[in-house]
C-alpha cells in the first residue's frame, strides 16, 4: 500500500459504530489496515488519536485521525470521490438522508437502553424502540416507492449502512433479551430491507460471529455494563 | 450566486437551535421570512413541515422543508456557496463537524443538566461542563474564532456558550465560564458577541432569565415527582 493514501481503522469487532465505517470503506473499495482494539485495555495509539473521547472507530488517513463514525462517513465520501457515493448529490436529498441517518443513530441509542438493569427502564426503552421503528418504517416508504427494496444490484449507500450496522443484528438482541424488536408484520419494509442487506457478501463477511456476539450481549445484560463504551 | 426563492424559517425566539440558523442566514446575506412558533402549542404548519419530530427550526426553501439545525446549516452551506461556513479541505471539515458535534451533544447537554438539577447531579454536571469547556479551550488554541479569522460552522453551533451559558450561571448562581481557566474561550465569547451580525440577533437577556428560570422549576418538579 502506497504511503500517499494509507488508511488505518481502529476498531472493535462488536461495535456497530465501527461496522458503519468498515462497510463504507469496503463499499468504496478503499484498502485499509484494521487494528482491533481491546476496549477494556485501550492502546496508546487509540488514546493518542482520540484523546477527547478515547473511543473507536478512529480512521487514520495519512497519519491524520478522524473520530466519530458519522463524521468519518462524511469524510470518506468527500475524500474518495471516485466510485459509489454514500450520500446523494442533491443538497435537499442530502438533507433528507442526513435527517434519517441521525434518526437511525438515535434508534441505536434507544436499543442500547434495552440492556439497562432496571426493569421499568427496559420496558420504556422497548416502547421507544418500537415507536422509532414505526416512524422509520413510514419514513423509508418514500425511499422505496416500489415497495420492497431490492439491494442486490446496487452498492451500499449511507442509509443501507446505517440500517445494517444498527438493526442488522436484531436477532441477537431478541435472543438475549427475550423480546421482539423487528416484526415483519408491523415493519414489513424495514424487515425485508434488513433481510436483503444481510444476504449481501460484503455484509455477511463483516457481520460479527453470531455466537460470539450472543455471548458478549449476554454478559452485558448480566453485568449491567454500559453498552458499547 | 443562488437565486433567492422563498426562504422561510420556523422558529422559537429562545431556541439556540433556531438561532444558529438565523446567524447562518444572516452571515450569508440570505433574506427569509421568519415564522414564530409556540413550541408549547404547536401549529398545524409546524406539524405538517416536521411530522417526525415536530420541532423547530425548520427551514423551508422553495417549498421544501428541512428540519434539524445542523442538517440545515450543512444545507445552507451547500446551496449558498459564498461565505462558506465549513472549510474546503475534507480533513478540516471533519474537524469542524467533530467539534460542532462535541459542543452540541456534550457541552450543551451538560450545561442544561447543570441548570435543571440539584445536589450531586448538579455538581457532576458543572464538573462535566467545565471538562468539556477545557477541551474546547485547547481546540481554540489562540484563534479568534473556531473558524479562524472568520465565524464558521463550529462558532455557530457553539454560539450558545456566549449568551446562554451566562444566563444559566446567573439563574443557579454557579460558575462555569471561569475566565482564568478559559482565557481563549473568554476572548472568543467577546469576539463572538461583538460581531455586528451576531449582536443584532440575540434573545433579550431579561426574557431568557425568566424563561429558563421557569423551565428549571418545571423540570425540577417533574423530576422529583418521577422518582
The residue ranges of chain B in which pLDDT falls below 50 over 5 or more consecutive positions are none
Helix content of chain A: 40-55%
Which sheet architecture does the biggest sheet of chain B show? 4 strands, mixed
Oligomer: heterodimer
C-alpha end-to-end distance of chain B:
55 Å
Provide a brief overview of the structure.
Chain A is of the alpha+beta class. In chain A, 55% of the residues lie in helices and 7% in strands. Chain B has helices at 16-27, 44-49, 69-79, 90-115, 119-140, 153-158, 160-163, 165-172, 183-194, 196-199, 205-226, and strands at 7-11, 33-36, 58-61, 64-67.
Can you tell me about this structure?
The complex is a heterodimer of chains A (229) and B (227). With 229 residues, chain A is of the alpha+beta class. Chain A is built from 10 helices and 4 strands; from the N terminus they run βαβαββαααααααα. In chain A, strands 2-1-3-4 form a 4-stranded mixed beta sheet, with helices on one face. The model of chain A has no long low-confidence stretch (mean pLDDT 92). With 227 residues, chain B is of the alpha+beta class. Chain B has 11 helices and 4 strands; from the N terminus they run βαβαββααααααααα. Chain B has helices at residues 16-27, 44-49, 69-79, 90-115, 119-140, 153-158, 160-163, 165-172, 183-194, 196-199, 205-226; strands spanning 7-11, 33-36, 58-61, 64-67. Chain B has a 4-stranded mixed beta sheet, covered by helices on one side. In chain B, helix 4 packs antiparallel against helix 5 (119-140) and helix 4 (90-115) packs parallel to helix 8. The longest helix of chain B is centred in the middle third of the chain and has 26 residues, at 90-115. Chain B is globular and about 50 Å long.
Amino acid at each position: 500500500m502506497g504511503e500517499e493514501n494509507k488508511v488505518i481503522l481502529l476498531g472493535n469487532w462488536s461495535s456497530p459504530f465501527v461496522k458503519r465505517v468498515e462497510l463504507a470503506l469496503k463499499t468504496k473499495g478503499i484498502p485499509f489496515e484494521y487494528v482491533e482494539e481491546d476496549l477494556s485495555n485501550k492502546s496508546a495509539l487509540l488514546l493518542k488519536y482520540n484523546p477527547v473521547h478515547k473511543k473507536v472507530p478512529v480512521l487514520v488517513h495519512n497519519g491524520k485521525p478522524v473520530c466519530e463514525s458519522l463524521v468519518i462517513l462524511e469524510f470518506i465520501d468527500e475524500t474518495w470521490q471516485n466510485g459509489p457515493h454514500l450520500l446523494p448529490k442533491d443538497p435537499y436529498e442530502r438533507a433528507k438522508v442526513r435527517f434519517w441517518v441521525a434518526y437511525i443513530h438515535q434508534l441505536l441509542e434507544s436499543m442500547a437502553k434495552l440492556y439497562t438493569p432496571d426493569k421499568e427502564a427496559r420496558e420504556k426503552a422497548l416502547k421507544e424502540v418500537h415507536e422509532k421503528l414505526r416512524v422509520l418504517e413510514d419514513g423509508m416508504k418514500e425511499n422505496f416507492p416500489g415497495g420492497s427494496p431490492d439491494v442486490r444490484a446496487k452498492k451500499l449507500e449511507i442509509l443501507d449502512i446505517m440500517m445494517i450496522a444498527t438493526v442488522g443484528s436484531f436477532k441477537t438482541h431478541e435472543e438475549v433479551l427475550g423480546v421482539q424488536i423487528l416484526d415483519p408484520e408491523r415493519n414489513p419494509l424495514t424487515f425485508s430491507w434488513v433481510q436483503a442487506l444481510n444476504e449481501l457478501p460484503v455484509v455477511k463477511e463483516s457481520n460479527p460471529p453470531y455466537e460470539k456476539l450472543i455471548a458478549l450481549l449476554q454478559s452485558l445484560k448480566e453485568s449491567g455494563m454500559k453498552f458499547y463504551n | 450566486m443562488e437565486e433567492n426563492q422563498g426562504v422561510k424559517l420556523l422558529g422559537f425566539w429562545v431556541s439556540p437551535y433556531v438561532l444558529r440558523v438565523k446567524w447562518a442566514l444572516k452571515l450569508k446575506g440570505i433574506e427569509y421570512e421568519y415564522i414564530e412558533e409556540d413550541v408549547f402549542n404547536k401549529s398545524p404548519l409546524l406539524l405538517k413541515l416536521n411530522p417526525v419530530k415536530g420541532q423547530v427550526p425548520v427551514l423551508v426553501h422553495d417549498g421544501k422543508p428541512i428540519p434539524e439545525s445542523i442538517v440545515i446549516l450543512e444545507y445552507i452551506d451547500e446551496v449558498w456557496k459564498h461565505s462558506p461556513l465549513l472549510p474546503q479541505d475534507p480533513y478540516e471539515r471533519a474537524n469542524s463537524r467533530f467539534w460542532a458535534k462535541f459542543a452540541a451533544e456534550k457541552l450543551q447537554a451538560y450545561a442544561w443538566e447543570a441548570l435543571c438539577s440539584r445536589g450531586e447531579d448538579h455538581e457532576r454536571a458543572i464538573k462535566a461542563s467545565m471538562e468539556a469547556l477545557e477541551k474546547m479551550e485547547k481546540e481554540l488554541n489562540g484563534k479568534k474564532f473556531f473558524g479562524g479569522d472568520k465565524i464558521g460552522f463550529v462558532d455557530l453551533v457553539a454560539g450558545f456558550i456566549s449568551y446562554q451559558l451566562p444566563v444559566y450561571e446567573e439563574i443557579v448562581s454557579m460558575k462555569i465560564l471561569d475566565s482564568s481557566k478559559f482565557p481563549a474561550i473568554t476572548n472568543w465569547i467577546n469576539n463572538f458577541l461583538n460581531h455586528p451580525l451576531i449582536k443584532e440577533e440575540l434573545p433579550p437577556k431579561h426574557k431568557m432569565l425568566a424563561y429558563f428560570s421557569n423551565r428549571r422549576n418545571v423540570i425540577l418538579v417533574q423530576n422529583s415527582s418521577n422518582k
